[in-house]
């Protein structure tokens, strides 16, 4: 499968998260061409503001498998990970991150300036995953814009 095919799954999870009453973010973890774990944002349904798509996926996958070193894995995220999620990727030594919309894109929808959260975290950490940005960006922006056009963040 290609980056675009995995990203379609992450974006579909983001849409599902919104349908389930959460904010529209989704993540897919892949190793050797196989999806090994998926997760959607669950901050409202789990009553946990840290249960973002990416950190929730890391918690779930590491808890179920006992694997805490993800240097051989790629994570596909519907939107650039926040500071917290980027930090979790550093601590688990994620090998590669692929994301669709950037945090700057998201913040623009919210009427704010934003920043490249993952770049800031990775550039100042002991571990830097390989990063590919902007894969199916427009598709992700449609989901984000549809949700946040009438809702605020948090």
What does this structure look like?
- The protein is α/β, with parallel strands linked by helices and 154 residues long.
- Helices cover 42% and strands 19% of the residues.
- The chain has six helices and five strands; from the N terminus they run αββαβαβααβα.
- Strands 2-1-3-4-5 form a five-stranded mixed β-sheet, with helices on both faces.
- Strand 3, helix 3 and strand 4 form a beta-alpha-beta unit.
- The radius of gyration is 14 Å and the shape is globular.
- The protein starts with a helix and ends in a 6-residue tail after the last helix.
- The model has no long low-confidence stretch (mean pLDDT 96).
Summarize the structure.
Helix content is 42%, strand content 19%. By secondary structure, the chain is an alpha/beta fold. Residues 1-113 form the CMP/dCMP-type deaminase domain.
The amount of beta strand, in percent, is 15-25%
The biggest beta sheet reads: 5 strands, mixed
Task: Label the overall shape.
Answer: globular
Rg, rounded, reads 14 Å
Task: Let me know the average pLDDT.
Answer: 96
SSE order, one letter for each helix or strand: HEEHEHEHHEH
By secondary-structure content and strand pairing, the structural class works out as alpha/beta
* Total beta strand runs: 5
Given as residue ranges, the uncertain stretches (5+ residues, pLDDT < 50) are none
Summed up, the helix count is: 6
In which order are the strands of the major sheet placed?
2-1-3-4-5
What fraction, in percent, of the residue positions are helical?
A: 40-55%
For the terminal residues, how far apart are their CA atoms? Answer: 34 Å
